[in-house]
């Protein structure tokens, strides 16, 4: 996630209909059940929704995606019930051609999305595997791994730890930036240490509270995490995560599209918006063309994110630990099922149950007090989204079901679905991976772009946008009908 202005820095073919995007596979294909070897079947067989219920959700989601006032470029969803994927669907197109609709390519079950901040949860899995191997310690001074002091100059005696970085309580901020391209030759040492070439006025460090005492959502913290992982292993972050997470969980995708096989590269969804930016101001044109934001792989091959001579452990922001992972909805469901099974994937142990407990345990919860009232322990807002972040574990948000018009973290209409997981927001992608680990139920959606300014469509019972509320509620109703 990042600010609205920099969310990670009538269409000519309006006649196309989302209902045509539903694959005509017949009634049985409305239900998709994951096998144990695919990673994460429950010991008991989960009830599945009826074909009638699934068809009703098909129609509801198609109507949401094809709303003339709020069109979506694509939408991919999945529902996990009792540890099994019982429903998945895709709507719309992973790539669009404004001049020739025949060249549009439909989203399907293999479509990979740049899942934005949901990537943080993936990165956390890699961190925890290194913790289990002894290469990292959650509570050790992070500077010990970096080879230089990682200390907030306002609180120089307080160490910053991985546990703080993973729970957004490290006192690092995004105000000085959180990504530096390979061409800049940046070493993060020069960013975080006073007097460094890129330290500037020190805006990356908070002055209001010491490390461990105050929550503020930070993308930059994850660039530091990636750098620590590289220093501890000597491996580039993207290849390290492939070895530690993607390959063991049999996931397609990853953090470096330039190294994807041809089939996976062709499956990436281009992210779109009907907007441009002029002098730092967003200009939306709902009647205009879809404008590619990232991953326009039909026009150009991905550019490698690192130079051949890159030294791992100098600039882990290169590969986007905070938001650059490409995964499918079913890939996210695989991760979800592993977490529901206390770290098991198929018949293999991916992480120990105690490690999963540490990851999912609450590490911070807002005390309900604002800064202007004094004694606040964090900022629960995200841009215009008020009280969107109320509790966190390590690399995952806890959704505690607080509700209000345009405020709160409630996920579904009427409430009652308390969950863990992560949301994503960047370059037109909006998405969520949220699940109840006790019931082993979960919801996933990934949006491939907006034909309207989402800020004009606020939620009625939460800080989410209204179309996100509708998507989550439709999926949750299907989940309830499967009981």
In total, the number of domains comes to 2
Biggest sheet statistics? 7 strands, antiparallel
The radius of gyration is 21 Å
Helix content: 10-25%
The secondary-structure element order is HEEEEHHHHHHHEEEEEHEEHEEEEEEEH
Rounded to the nearest angstrom, the distance between the terminal CA atoms is: 34 Å
Sheet/helix structural class: alpha+beta
Overall pLDDT confidence: 91
The geometry reads as: globular
Number of strands: 18
How would you write the strand order of the largest sheet? 3-2-1-17-16-15-14
Number of helices: 11
Low-confidence stretches: 1-43
Q: How much of the polypeptide forms β-strand, as a percent range?
A: 15-25%
Features:
alpha+beta, disordered N terminus, seven-stranded antiparallel beta sheet, 2 domains, globular, Beta-lactamase, 483 residues, three-stranded mixed beta sheet, 11 helices, 18 strands
Task: Explain what this protein looks like in three dimensions.
23% of the residues lie in helices and 16% in strands. It is of the alpha+beta class. It has 2 domains: 18-111 and 257-304 and 328-341 and 384-481, no CATH class; 124-245, 3-Layer(aba) Sandwich (Beta-lactamase). It has a 7-stranded antiparallel β-sheet, with helices on both faces. A hairpin with a 2-residue loop joins strand 10 and strand 11. It is globular. Mean pLDDT is 91; it is low at 1-43.
């Amino acid at each position: 996630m990042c600010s609205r202005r920099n969310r990670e820095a009538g269409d000519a073919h309006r006649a196309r209909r989302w209902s045509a995007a539903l694959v005509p596979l017949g009634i049985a294909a409305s239900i998709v059940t994951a096998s144990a070897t695919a990673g994460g079947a429950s010991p008991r067989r989960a009830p599945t929704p009826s074909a009638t219920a699934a068809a009703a959700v098909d129609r509801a989601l198609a109507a949401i995606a094809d709303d003339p006032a709020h069109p979506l470029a694509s939408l991919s969803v999945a529902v996990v019930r009792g540890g099994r994927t019982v429903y998945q669907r895709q709507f719309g197109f992973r790539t669009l051609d404004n001049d020739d609709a025949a060249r549009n390519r439909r989203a399907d079950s293999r479509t990979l999305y740049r899942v934005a901040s949901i990537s943080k949860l993936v990165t956390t899995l890699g961190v925890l595997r290194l913790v289990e191997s002894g290469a990292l310690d959650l509570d050790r001074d992070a500077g010990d791994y970096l080879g230089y002091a990682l200390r907030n100059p306002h609180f120089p005696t307080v160490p910053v730890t991985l546990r703080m970085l993973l729970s957004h309580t490290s006192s690092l901020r995004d105000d000085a930036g959180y990504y530096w391209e390979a061409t800049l030759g940046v070493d993060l040492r020069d960013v975080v240490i006073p007097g460094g070439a890129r330290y500037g006025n020190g805006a990356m460090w908070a002055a209001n509270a010491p490390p461990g005492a105050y929550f503020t959502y930070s993308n930059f913290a994850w660039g530091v995490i990636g750098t620590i992982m590289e220093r501890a292993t000597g491996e580039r972050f993207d290849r390290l995560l492939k070895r530690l997470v993607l390959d063991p969980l049999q996931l397609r995708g990853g953090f470096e599209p330039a190294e994807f096989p041809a089939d996976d590269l062709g499956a990436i969804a281009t992210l779109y918006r009907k907007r441009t930016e002029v002098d730092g101001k967003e200009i939306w044109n709902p009647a205009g063309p879809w404008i590619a934001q990232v991953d326009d792989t039909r026009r150009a091959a991905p550019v490698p994110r690192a130079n051949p001579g890159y030294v791992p452990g100098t600039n882990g922001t290169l590969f986007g630990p905070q938001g650059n992972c490409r995964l499918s909805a079913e890939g996210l469901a695989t991760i979800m099922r592993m977490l529901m099974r206390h770290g098991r994937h198929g018949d293999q142990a991916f992480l120990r149950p105690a490690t999963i407990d540490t990851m999912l345990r609450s590490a911070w919860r807002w005390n309900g007090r604002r800064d202007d009232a004094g004694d606040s322990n964090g900022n629960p807002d995200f841009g215009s989204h008020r009280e969107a972040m109320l509790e966190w574990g390590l690399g995952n948000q806890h959704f505690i079901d607080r509700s209000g018009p345009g405020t709160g973290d409630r996920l579904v209409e009427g409430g009652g679905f308390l969950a863990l997981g992560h949301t994503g927001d960047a370059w037109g992608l909006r998405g969520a991976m949220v699940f109840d680990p006790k019931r082993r139920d979960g919801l996933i959606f990934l949006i491939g772009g907006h034909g309207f300014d989402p800020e004009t469509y606020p939620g009625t019972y939460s800080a989410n946008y209204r179309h996100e509320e509708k998507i989550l509620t439709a999926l949750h109703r299907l989940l309830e009908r499967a009981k």
